[in-house]
Structure formats: structure tokens, C-alpha cells
Fold this protein.
Amino acid sequence: MCGIAAIISPVANRLELVSVMIDTLEHRGPDARGTASVRDCALGHVRLSIIDLSSGAQPMSDASERYWITYNGELYNFLELRDELEGKGHPFRTHSDTEVIIAAYHEWGRDCLQRFRGMFAFALWDTHNRTLFAARDIFGEKPLYYARMSDGALVIASEIRAILASKLVGHSLDLVSVDAFLAFGYVPPDRTVYRDVATLPPAHCLDWREGNVTVEPYWRPRLGERQIGMDEAAEELRHLAGRAVKRQMIADVPVGAFLSGGLDSSTIVALMQEHSAIPVKTFSVGFGSLINELPYARAVAERYRTEHYELYLETLDVAGLIERMSDVYDEPFADTSHIPTFLVSEFASRHVKVVLSGDGGDELFGGYPWHSMLVRAGQVTHSYALWIVARIASKLLRDRNIALARKSIALGYAARWPDPWLGDIQSHVTTSPRQRQKLWGRSVPSWTPGDLYRPGDDVKGIDRGLFFDLMHYLPGDILVKVDRAAMAHGLETRAPFLDRDLAEFALSLPAALKVDENRGKLVLREACERYWPEELHGRGKQGFGSPIGAWMEKPDVAALTRRVTGPKSKLRELLRGPVDDVLEEHNYRAWIMMSLGIWLERHEVAW
């Protein structure tokens, strides 16, 4: 995996600035670095060598030097594409997937994106036409940011820090993005926290020509279009999952796996061991008595005789790590599991350069608790009166009747958000629009979901909720968390469930094969339960979680919170409303507020 940077500027050569930009990205590519200057374009690259260690240096050109590319990612089907392109007369000088991208673009233009199976973000300069083509993979596993200058120049990089290092872009906050962060704990994947920096959304490509930028989608998920039974779906899912894992194990360096002990990562580990002649290296993390999934992960490791490593995190400098996370993530980011993900990535990087993960399984197969709740909401009457009655009865019983408590929640969702898409959004919202306006203490435009996250009218039922998770939560939170945490240690992560062939098949399945009113991942359970030890059967969702309640009560964390949210803090300059009311709650909303305060303190910003 790598870090990339580029400046397209018809008025000046920016190679020196590109060199400064890639200085900030060395953590993404500690093995090599390179720059290149061609007419109107300067390219930079830092490399984490995974495939073709000897001849895959970048920036790279084709033999004619018409096309120049800086690329971050892995094409898992590059050998098949290379064979096809060689048959069409394209010569190859290296054994890297980078050169395959150049030849594929030369042969098929932007339609090459439909042939790629992998994760990628790249910028490709055509010296003949003086145009730039950039693209990002369908789920946004790899990041790509850009900024447009008033003179028509374009700045591109893997991380925002590199864009800012160019000194060509201002540091003004985008208050709508901050409002979205207050709502979700992360910045939406079609925005950045800076007014003058944009992100290329997942499944989009960018064209630059004569100072004009065009951004267009090249893929959009299609849900629930296939008519198929459970047995046939499970059999095909096993086949596609096995193929995806085998594809993603291709590397010229050691490959391991994150093993949380959940269903998704356990499936990946089982399939990896099927395709490995030596024990797979697996890595797990636990918080002792606070949160401990190690016994489940250990059961999987023992069944498949992996080379298993465990990281114990019961004693941590939590305040110091929270501050460090503010530097790892260019934008405010409050997913509490970023700390264990960061630490287990550091741990794994001592043994391997690549790890596979189970990311994407929950979004594709309906694995989050709110998915079953939304199914229940679709089965009850959309009545405020019934909801109020059920809510009162549930409270009188102090929620001791689980069935009644569940029905009360379902009735509430059905009455207030009858569209599962809106219901799913509300499942993620920590701070409501009214609460956010109160915190602002002034008039600030609220974030509202754009077309990128809105399913078409042909998408029905629970699939509408899954659509939001797939398009917003997965690329905005999950994949950002893993990419930044792992790449901070020069560790490449791969997610076989996000293999395009596997993902498109999963998305096409009827929702009834994924989730019902009691549990999710129905088809995954049917297909892969055979791979799991007995301890995992019937397990719910957990993942690399964090004991946020215990952390917030630690004296050093409390002192940090007081410092970054106090009367003279930047947070109080930005938010003029009753911040103390939120901080007293000691919950995720308080964590979000603290995270924003730390980020504002440690970054140069204006508003």
C-alpha cells in the first residue's frame, strides 16, 4: 500500500511542493519514494512494497511515456488482465499491477474501472491530451482527496495532511461537515472538514481538462434483484468467498489476519487456512475484564492451528492515545474502536506487512442489531398512539419484558420513520438536528443526506436501510478507521468481503435471506457456519470494541476533557451553546465532544 500526491498546474512546475507533500505520507510507504515531473504535472509516491518488490517503483509510465501514474492499492485480478492485454499487443516491462492499470486505461479508457477487482486510488496523467484521470474503488477502501485552485491547478493526495502541506490550500472549517460529525462521530464520505478540500467519493472518477474538473460515478449498488433460494445462495456465497480470499492472499510478503472472534473474521481465517500450506498468522486484542473477545478468537485459532498472537490492553495510557489519534486521523473521528485497531495494527506490523479482515460483512449481510429492529418496525402498525401506549407499558415494567421493549422500539421507528432508510440513518445519529442547533448556539446549516446516500425508489424494505450503511457508514467510518490506523504503521489491510464479485452477489440477494426480526447474516450463517467452532454459533455482533464508559471516568481522560472543552478552548469558540450538558452524560455524545475539542486544539483551523 502506498501514499500518492500530484499537482497539475499549467502555470508553474510544482515538483518541490509534491516532494513536501509526500514527506507527510511516509508512514503509508516506508519502503521507497519517488517523484516525476512531466509537462504541467508533478507526481509523487511513497511505497509499501507488496507485489513485484524489485521493479514496481512509482511514479510509473508506459513505454512511450505518454501515460504517467501514481497509484495506491492492489488489483487482485491483475494477472488475468495482464494476459488479456498482452493478447491485445500491450508490452509489459514489470510484473506489477501498476503497469496493468496504465495499459487497461490505454485500451478501454474509463471502462477499465468495470474490469478492476481490487482496492485503489490513482491519478493518471495523459501527456498527449494534457488531461488527468483519477479514480477510487467502489467502496472507498483507499482514500483520495483533492483541491481546486483559482488558476485551474489541481492538488491530489492520499491524505488531507499532504494537501495542506502544499501551502496552496486554506484551513477554513466546513461547518456543515462539523455538524455532520456531531451527528455521527465521523465526517461523511463525500465531504471533508475543510471548506477548500474535497474527497473523491467511493465508486467515482475525476477528469481534469484545461482547469475544469468533472466528477462522476461509475458504479452504484443494485440491491435485491436476484430471485434465489437459501441453499443455492449459500453454495454460491461459499464459492465466491473462497475465491475472494484466495485472490487477496496474493503477495510477495507475509500475509496475516485480524481475528476478532466474530463471524466475519473467523470465516476469513478459516478460508485463508484452506489456501495456505503454512499456519496463518492471526492477531487479536482484548481488554481483560472490560471487553474480552480473546476466548472466541482463541477457539478459532486452535481449530485452524494458526500462529496466533494476542494483545492485552487492560492497562493503557488512554489520554495519550486519544491525543495521538487526533494526529493519525486528519479529521475529527470519534469511533472508539480506532484505538484498539491502531494498537493491533502496530502489533501485527511487527510480524507481517499485509492482513486480511472481515470488514464489510455487516453491511452486506445485515449484521448490525438495528437491521433486525428495522425488520420488526416493518411488521407493525405505523401509529403514534400504539407507540405511546407500548412505551408507557414498557417503562412501567422497567424494560424487564424484553419482547414488549423490542415492540415499543419497533413501533417508535414505524411511527416516526416508516422508511427503513430514514430509520437506519436515525440508528446512527447520536445528536439530533435540534440538539445540534442548540449546541451551536447560532444559525448553522444542518447536514442532510445527499443523493449519494439516497436509494432509488426501486429499492424496497430493509434493503433501503442497508443502502445507507453501505454508502455512508462503511466508507465514512469503518474503512477510514482501518486504513488510517493500519497505514500509520505501514500495514496493508484487505477486506475479502468487499471483493466486487462477492459484494455484488451479496447485494443482489433478497433481503429475507440476510436478516429477519431476530438476527442477521442468515445466508452467511447458512454458508459458513461449518467453518466456525461451537463457541461462535449464535454469536451476535461485537468487533474490536472499546470500554468507553470506563475510559471516560479515568482521571487523565477527565483532565484532558476539561482542558479541551473548557471556557477558553477552541471548542467553546466554535460551539456557543450548552456543551456542559453533553459532557455530563459520560456517553458517546460526550466522547464526540471531547474528540472534536482535541482535534481543534491540535490543528490549525479558521472559521
The two ends are 34 Å apart (CA to CA). The longest strand covers residues 67-75. The chain has a mean pLDDT of 92.
